[in-house]
Amino acid sequence: MNILELNGLTKQYGKLLAVNELNLQIQQGQVYGILGPNGSGKTTTLGMILDVVAPSSGDYRWFGGMSPIKARQQIGAILETPCFYPYMTAEQNLRISAHIKECSAAKISEVLKQVGLFERRKDKFKTYSLGMKQRLSIGAALLADPPVLILDEPTNGLDPEGIAEIRTLIQEIAQQGKTIILASHLLDEVQKVCTHFCILKNGNKVHEGLVNDITGTTRQIRITSQDLSLLKTTLQQHPGLSNLATDGPELIADLQPGTTTADINRFCFEQGITLSKLQPVNRTLEQEFLTILKANQ
Ligand SMILES: Nc1ncnc2c1ncn2[C@@H]1O[C@H](COP(=O)(O)OP(=O)(O)OP(=O)(O)O)[C@@H](O)[C@H]1O
């Protein structure tokens, strides 16, 4: 079942087209990354699907057409760091959140454990690091045990340790079968936690797919031999390679579909060249992202 379906969702701010005819389908259990540079329309999209920004045209359906009020109860969302009371402890703040959400306070300890703040539950919110504040926000969003979690730039401003903690937490939440929709401009973040992703640029969806389709396939090689220029002129004749370029003491090239590293090795051997290195490289989402953005300029 589609958890969320967007049909031509559009938002125009005066002359500015922030989101243009966006079509998306997100299914249960996916960790869906909405990726894009600053100003590409990620937050506006999340605002629309959370009913806080009115679409100019198009529509969206949660859970196959559930009423917006009912659907909203199934979604835990963090668009900005929520306003917790600085002089209250994490536990007291979550008690207030539970009261507002009309859910049982019995869930508070469980949620604090899940986000790794149980030991610090009696500390005042103002003494928390940015990463702990962000984890508490996720904890608040989990109080009502929603099947869907929406996160906007969840690691913004965090140090590497804080980023790693949030990443692990997102992975743990996803393992419980929850659907997570995450907006980010950080390729690394999307690559490490998401199963599916789309790329927005100037409000347009320019790509969508499975993260594994990109990062799991070897489509590049790093290759070197004693005489680099001879190797380069030789490899230029191989039809199974493209984008051949020198990168320091080695060459880098894209493998065309159907060509393997073994083919390249054999070809060089037949040409009398002994390779000192032939290393397959997994393409990163970053390379794919840059290629896609370039192609859509
Ligand atoms: N309330 C608003 N009024 C006018 N323009 C807006 C408003 N909100 C967003 N925009 C514009 O819409 C475009 C998309 O903004 P949005 O915040 O959705 O992008 P984003 O991808 O989330 O960017 P960032 O990564 O910087 O948060 C931008 O050009 C932005 O300036």
Number of strands: 13
Distance between the termini: 35 Å
Q: Which CATH class of the largest domain is shown? A: Alpha Beta
Helical coverage, percent range = 25-40%
Query: The CATH topology of the largest domain, please?
Result: Rossmann fold
Work out the radius of gyration.
Answer: 24 Å
Order of helices and strands: EEEHEHEHHHEHEHEEHEHEEHEH
Q: How would you write the strand order of the largest sheet?
A: 5-6-7-3-8-9
What is the makeup of the main sheet? 6 strands, mixed
CATH-level-4 superfamily name of the largest domain: P-loop containing nucleotide triphosphate hydrolases
Total of domains:
2
Shape: elongated
List keywords for this structure.
11 helices, Rossmann fold, binds adenosine-5'-triphosphate, alpha/beta, elongated
Structure in words:
The radius of gyration is 24 Å and the shape is elongated. The protein is built from eleven helices and 13 strands. The mean pLDDT is about 90. Helix content is about 35%, strand content about 30%. It starts with a strand and ends with a helix. The longest helix has 16 residues, at about 160-175. A six-stranded mixed beta sheet has the order 5-6-7-3-8-9, sandwiched between helices. Strands 11-12-10-13 form a four-stranded antiparallel beta sheet, with helices on one face. The chain is an alpha/beta fold and about 300 residues long. The chain folds into two domains: about 1-215, 3-Layer(aba) Sandwich (Rossmann fold), CATH 3.40.50.300; about 215-295, Alpha-Beta Plaits. It has helices at about 40-50, 70, 90-100, 105-115, 130-140, 160-175, 185-195, 210-215, 230-235, 260-270, 285-295; strands at about 1-15, 15-25, 30-35, 55-60, 75-80, 150, 180-185, 195-200, 205-210, 220-225, 240-245, 250-255, 275-280. Bound molecules: adenosine-5'-triphosphate. Keywords: ATP-binding, Nucleotide-binding, Transport. Belongs to the ABC transporter superfamily. It comes from Marinoscillum furvescens DSM 4134.
